[in-house]
């Protein structure tokens, strides 16, 4: 018997009961055993020798033999009965158990089935009617439940109404914080939930090459509003003494660096646990001091940190500044009293009907509503109204404010970032009206403020004469007040290019001074530092509907509104971001500007920037930008920080889950490839081995001992 037939026989006999035993090595006694021998004793062509039989063989035999008729010698009765009983039991289970949704009448033969049996059980035989009635009752109950649930859901038209839409958006922001540009990103990007935010990861279209071209030759735009801002107020000596415990001059710039302390530069500082340098690092933060202002006692600084670093940084700042006294959030009683006094009395029904025009629909007013009108959530929607965000110290006088999601931050990357800013923004026009209800008319009443504003506008105009963003000193800060950019929104998208004529008209001396020395210290001041101004600008923002109505009333369509509304001025801060600072190739590549705004004005500035031809990127391109700059990324490249350790644990769980989702035959064989740690980088093991080698430990040769950690490092990277 051939190998294939033997294998087939083995597979066939595998499922046979053990009680039936066949003889091994017994040849079948066929009637054709002596056949095939001619008269001369030699086999003819048709009378060939048949191979030996080896028991039962599947299928028709090639040489005319049939199946072996030999019976087993004996059968064990008990084992044979148990085997047959198990087979019968399995057969009955398979027949009675339904593996899919089936009806009772499907148990009948096909010639007895009728279409009416599905809704009329009397068409079934009597033995099946009870089962059919029970199944029919279950289906009716399930249908009634579905109908009740579907009746609760509103129609799409009702769900898309403005009030209902806002309620739905506010409900969805309770778990993950939405940025002000979330709706814009959700229509164009793949969204991910990270660090308590809902962020755009990458666009839904191909963008890698175009984004790289934008970073290299034009401008790339990112929304970094998810970065956390912590504000510190107090005396300069007290702040410097407290913050010096968390830094060291050996690790780079500190909070008390000369250029940083003056407010002219923004610097990056690596912070540690208080008094634990060089151990227990927390991570990098960016520090921005407010320039000294005449008439204001004390100093003020902002610390910008990654959201994963905030939970470690904030308690450490409270510890070194001794700020443990929680300040409850202020509630203005006058506002609530004014709302109660100004609440109109309900008018009679006939008066309301008389006010309505014939054929007009009656709108839902605040009088009819049992609840106040729905408002869009600005800032952190997951934070409860009574959550403490301010802490103070009676001994040091330092006050800590958590300004997370209170300031919008956009990053423009590329050599033409300054051209996009100068094209999209315009310095605020002077307001001659005296209106104390808005902050800008009061600001214009002071001549010193107007003089400072004119100097800032001149510096901003000088930026147009610069050919590339990389020419400016890194970390330069410029304060400015601009008009509402929606007033100068172009009708079509356009790609901003540097204007040669404006570059020639710019004063050459001012341009050289700006490139060499940066922005003067007095021009780094901005009203964005004041909380009252930020709140005033956010509350008095012109709604989009009112702005469109004002534009429609213009005699010349598309022209700018004149005069500019008094509430259409916004204080901003422009912070220069350095480019590549490592190596000789592509020096200063990836430089750009950060634009800081008060909350509520995110989309008012986002759309005008997009209309200037910038390319929008998400988290993925942010990582690629840092890789191209050869700059470490937080928390990816900081495995010794608490945030980096947590990130590695989350990444390991994600990679392991993805690995287990593949079937075993399709999984990567990391053992075969020699990968020691496929899901996590064992930096601790690498550091310990290097420390052991540097101390001269080990008995193996130097070449052999060095090769081991180096090979490990190559595998990890």
Topology:
Blueprint: H1 3-13, H2 77-96, H3 126-152, H4 156-159, H5 162-172, E1 177-178, H6 182-186, E2 189-194, E3 197-203, H7 208-217, E4 220-223, E5 228-234, H8 236-243, H9 258-262, E6 267-272, E7 281-289, E8 299-305, H10 307-321, E9 325-327, H11 333-341, H12 349-355, E10 390-392, E11 399-402, E12 407-413, H13 417-424, H14 439-444, H15 447-462, E13 477-483, H16 500-505, H17 508-517, H18 531-539, H19 544-552, E14 569-577, E15 592-598, H20 602-610, E16 615-616, H21 619-629, H22 642-661, H23 670-673, H24 683-694, H25 702-716
Parallel strand pairs: 1-3, 4-16
Antiparallel strand pairs: 2-3, 4-12, 5-8, 5-11, 6-7, 7-8, 9-10, 10-11, 12-15, 13-14, 14-15
Helix pairs in contact: 24-25
As an assembly, this protein is: single chain
Mean pLDDT, as a whole number? 79
| Share in helix | 25-40%
Number of helices: 25
Strand content: 5-15%
The shape, in one word, is extended
Q: Report how far the terminal alpha carbons are from each other.
A: 57 Å
Task: Please give the radius of gyration in angstroms.
Answer: 40 Å
Q: Report strand order across the widest sheet.
A: 6-7-8-5-11-10-9
Main beta sheet: 7 strands, antiparallel
**Class from helix and strand fractions:** alpha+beta
Low-pLDDT regions: 21-54, 333-370, 701-717
Number of strands: 16
Biased composition (Basic residues): 1-14, 144-162
InterPro entries: Pop1, Pop1_N, POPLD_dom
Subcellular location: Nucleus
Region (Disordered): 1-67, 136-162, 357-376
